[in-house]
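With this grant's support, the team has encoded backbone shapes as discrete tokens. A representative record is reproduced below.
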Amino acid sequence: MRDDDLYSLRSEQRFDGTAVLTRIDNPQPVMELPSHIENRPITAIGSDIVPLGVKSVPREIILPASVTSIGHGAFQDLRYLKKLVLPEGLLQIGDFAIYTCPDLQELYIPPSVERLGRYAVGYMYEHARAYRLNYFTLLCKQNSAAHHFAEENQLTYRLV
């Protein structure tokens, strides 16, 4: 059985022949997402890819090396997500992309990332407001976009 069958992945084709992962209908606690779906390389993660009724399932997600962008709210409200592995070569992380993930206590953002959107990581929405997660640590390279994001947003970070 292929991973895209196991996870019931959905995608949209782009004009350049690549795919945007748009939905994971049957998430598993540990998922290593495939690099291709329907013979197209997955280069982007869309918005809010895990449906509401199953957001409590994912604990660990590993993105394929082919992914270069993560969309707005892609991994929002995955409250029990403990580990997210971002690929080297990732270029951008959208607004609210990894948002309200309180069990995600640290995240390495590769130096290839050039842009992090508003509240991209390290924030939670509760009681009608966004606030920084006090126990979250951003792992990053010195002078990277992630390093600047951490300093500008007063997030705890560690240079690696």
Summary: The radius of gyration is 15 Å. The first strand starts at residue 9 and ends at 13.
